[in-house]
Design goal:
Blueprint (H helix, E strand, L loop, with lengths): L1 E4 L14 E8 L2 E3 L2 E12 L4 E2 L5 E2 L1 E11 L2
Antiparallel strand pairs: 1-2, 2-4, 3-4, 4-7, 5-6
């Protein structure tokens, strides 16, 4: 869980200036021998519309899903 507050930040931060962001990430580690598979879900919610939706329109939230892998040798 993360919280980023830029309400009093310098205008050089661009769209983040004057807003706050709450982010939450859930991930798992699944091991198959020396291979680790890591699925991850992340949701970011902002007090201002700083993200873009699938139609490139401003929105206050963003959802990501990804899969990472690592191999140990």
């Amino acid at each position: 869980m993360e919280y980023f507050d830029a309400k009093d930040a310098a205008p050089s931060l661009g769209t983040l200036a004057g807003s706050s962001v709450f982010a939450n990430t859930v991930s798992l580690n699944y091991k198959v021998g020396k291979l680790t598979i890591i699925p991850e879900l992340r949701y970011d919610a902002a007090s201002e519309d700083i993200f873009l939706d699938k139609d490139a329109l401003p929105t206050g939230g963003s959802f990501f899903a990804l899969i990472a892998t690592t191999y140990s040798f």
